[in-house]
Predict the structure.
Amino acid sequence: MSGGPESGGRPPRAFTPDFLTELFRNPLDPGYADTAARRRESPGPSGWRATSARAVSVLVVAVVGFLFAVAYRETLAEEPSRSQARAGLIAQIKQREAETDEMTARADRLREEVNRQRDAALGGSQAARLRSLEAGTGLGRVRGDGVVVRLVDAAPKEGDAVTGDSDAGPDRVIYSDLQKVANDLWASGAEAVAVNGQRLTATSTIRSAGAAILVDFRPVTSPYEVSAIGPASMRDRFEESRSAYLMRRVAKQTGLSFEVREAEGLTLPAAPEPRLRYAQPSVDPSPSPSGSAANRSSSPGPSGPATSLSPSGGVR
């Protein structure tokens, strides 16, 4: 018995490829193939359009290259003048710094001369009392034993885009670190404090201006040395303070240097004379008799009210 495909009246089986097989066998859409065939048969208009497009592209590239060349030449031409301007500004800054240092030294010499003449005019006891008040308020130079707190920025690491640990903070000393150290030295019994030779008073400020640290509007740079004159117990009390604990932790995590040592024979300079402002009572255009009497009783003297400065005031 023959079992041919036509037996039983059934039509022959037809093989139909699945979609993935057809896709890999003929990846190009029939429409793209027809368009390519038509271009090969009539290349005139399509070839002209392609040539035009290439010409426009070449022209655009040439124009952009010309503009870059002109900008580069202009930059090179302006570089000498820009360098000269930068060099001139640097020279002016150095000249102003030298003039400021010279004027500061001259002011110190004049202050010493005024103090000598004042002591000669006042006499022994009054001059000694005045010198004691100046030492307490920071307006007089002092000498004694104390403590030096040294803080140094961590060495820069090559290849690190962001330095420092996110929990510990940056790997350099910031202005608030100096604030905390100075205030805890006052709290530990310091009688006089200076930061890099800048004497602190009750009106002193430690602020930041960008990456710079200013002490009374004068820049200080690393390494930072906070010098304090005080009793022998000052170091032990400062070592137990919160700022010392915090700086030791920051130094361990970021790599900056923090050191506390005792020092003998420290000399701290005097702070500049403060600019004091005096309040004046307001005058009523038509004061009552009782009001005028009150004004007369509360009027300041010819020299204005006295202002006391605390030697142990905190740094803001």
Remarks:
- The mean pLDDT is 78.
- The beta strands are 142-152, 192-195, 198-199, 206-209, 212-215, 218-220, 224-229, 257-268.
- The first strand starts at residue 142 and ends at 152.
- Residues 19-94 form one domain.
